[in-house]
## 1
Amino acid sequence: MKPFIVLRDLTKDYNGKVRGLDGLCLEIYPGEWVAVMGPSGSGKTTLLNMIAAMDQPTAGSIYVNGVDLLSLTEEERARFRREKAGLIFQQFHLIPYLTTIENVMLAQYFHSMADREEAAHALQEVGLGERMRHYPSELSGGEQQRVCIARALINQPKIILADEPTGNLDAENEKTVMGIFHRLHDAGHTLLFVTHDPQIGIQADRTIELEHGRIVPALSTKGPVLSSFG
Ligand code: ADP
Ligand code: MG
């Protein structure tokens, strides 16, 4: 099986000074669920931003499904973000004056045409069929995060990138949201999932631990790549 995401010697310097990533190498297989762990400032968000084509590295290369992300024009990168990557953040980034269903349709709007039926379907998938006309302020944290998941799923992305998506949730909401991620994994999505919580990390197929923009081999669990080499 060919890796779906290949990162080679990825380095990111901010303002020519702060090193966000430092020669990071990583391969992720189709349908794999990788948990990204590591202390604050270790480069987790920077890594996600690179794979989402939201930012470009200072050096190194990024291939997603055989496509060299660094060879793309700005317009092609925008298209990649819309069509291939689903992004979920710790802060929900919902528009306060739009209802639940309008927030989801907004993501569609940037894709092509907003389709109320599809948005409603995505909300039903995350168990929010009854909350479509509510505003973000009327929803619990867990419900808001589920709106964000519906929004990220609306364009059927192959890759789902989640940056501490359970960081602001209580135990019960966390369980509901993790149930959705398990379903997405079962449905074959490739998941890259940043978390601080080891209990959540172990639910993934593999854990990588970052420190100073590099992968710490001793603390990272073996995935298909490493295990095939013994
Ligand atoms: P994490 O998500 O693991 O907390 P980040 O990827 O956000 O880590 O940050 C890695 C390093 O890069 C940190 O030292 C951080 O301060 C720095 N950094 C991140 N984003 C920026 C930015 N936009 N400008 C300058 N430095 C940044
Ligand atoms: Mg971060």
## 2
Amino acid sequence: MTNKYIVANWKMSPTSIAEAEDLLAYIDEHLQNETENKEHSLIICPPFVFLDDVSKILSTSRLSGQAELGAQDIALADFGAWTGEISGPMLKRLNVKYVIVGHSERRWKIGESDEVVNKKLKTILANELTPIVCVGERERNNNFQEFLKNQIKATFAGLSADDISKCLIAYEPVWAISSNPGAYPDTPESALESIFVIQEVLTVNCKLETRNLPPFLYGGSVNATNAKDFLSLNEIAGVLVGGASVRKEEFIQILKNS
Ligand code: PGA
């Protein structure tokens, strides 16, 4: 298997820095001992309040050079009066390299529109950070392809082909995200069908050459059992793991299976 991205989206967990340290120590120990010959790009996205500590741990432990830091959100502006927000330059000072944007929990629970996602995406790129752009339909109905096409067009509006090729795109069907009632994981085949729809919009509407298409990740109830099914596909460059990324034994299994 070629080098795959494993993105740990901790969301609003764990609840204390002690637990976060424990989780990282466990990953450190087992990464060295059990996943020796595995090649993966590990990206840890903790809550904002832990970024500073996690950044220090990633640069001083054996995880240095093996894991990079991601943020779960970014302010629309780099400076100024934006109560409660964290700017791109602040993230960069903490050694953040990636930023999740367009996550369905922000789109649907908090009400972030495509327009806001698009602006944040531009801010991430302007700060020379790598966006992990989440897209996905809410329901797998007859209209899902149309929904995806419109979401992609609006999310990437005004971006050059060059900028789009710098992103990672995470296809995360909302109905598959484990925090939603009745959620169940997508199948690799149907995830691939959606990825092809997204690729078509990017090549036809956004004028990307096929060879410049960005890497595609899958997210939505990824666990120790199903991760390898998604990761075995050439078209899927990695997984975005939510709930299972803070269950330490399970997360190590995902890394071992990648
Ligand atoms: P999940 O979350 O793995 O818990 O389904 C994925 C995500 O929300 O990014």
## 3
Amino acid sequence: MGYKIAWIKGDGIGPEISDATLHVIEALELKYNLNFNIVFYEAGDTCLSKMGVALPSETIEGFKNSDAAIKGPVGETSMDVTVKLRQLFDLYANIRPVKNYPNIECVKSIDVVIVRENSEDLYKGLEFELENLAIALRIISEHATRRIARVAGEIAAKRKGIVTVVHKSNVLRKTCGLFSKVAKEELSNYPVKVNEIYVDAASAILIKNPDRFDVILTTNMFGDILSDEAAQIAGSLGIGPSANIGESKALFEPIHGAAPDIAGKNIANPYAMILSFKMLLDWLSDKKYDKRLKEAASTLESAVIKALNMGYKTPDIGGDKKTNEIGHFLHKLIKNL
Ligand code: ATP
């Protein structure tokens, strides 16, 4: 029956960028004799207004029974869907590679992987109201820091071998203090050079000298913010893919949100979603020892590069192509590659 892929189209531009990606996948299936059993599940704002719940139990079950999952962005229900799925399946590593693609105007040339701790920090959602006070608890544990530091060490060892630990321990002495200490301890087991830098300085250096970074290891909220910044340095939020990885499950998604301002206009950039599927193929290939998936991933990226070089770009990256035109063109390219 092939690989079961759970798919959440999501809100805003989610359905459009999903449909473009699905069209590209059909071409990969034909070329590599692959069979993806794609099952669609509901989640997000639209789902909440239709079904009264943002993340139905069928969606959770569907994810549980899938080989891999991918989702488009959701709007205001992000905490109830994206963050909830990450927590339910302990998808503790958020991997966000950012690099330049051809023919896209960028701020600077950049090639970094942001490794963001994905299970705790302020995103645990422990918020309280006390009369005229609002309180949020920031959780940073040794266990979560060690395991995310290992992910950063492994990734950096296969790249330039530099990990920059980003935190704010001069102010958040206990939480960031623990993160910094434990991350450095754990990274000493890897053949990598370890730097550390405060998050405010990191955000400035990222714009001025992105080549000072190879792998950035950071906490949940800092990683969320820095990865949007990094994607914009590369040209657009619309080209940033990501992976949420746990011990046995993984969920892939573009880093951008539902972009309601451009929804329904067929102008959303589908490359972040398409490249998220490429990350899914790479992950599934390693998990299932299926080389066809790796080849399909590589063909998919080559097709993206070719399409960009030939001017297949949406308005956010300086083009005039429609979302679905890019899907159709990539489909054709892959068939003929
Ligand atoms: P979130 O908090 O869920 O990440 P957000 O409201 O911060 O969402 P996004 O929805 O990511 O922000 O988008 C910010 C703006 O960037 C959008 O309004 C849109 O104009 C642009 N944008 C985001 N994604 C895309 C895309 N795929 N294609 C084109 N433009 C995009």
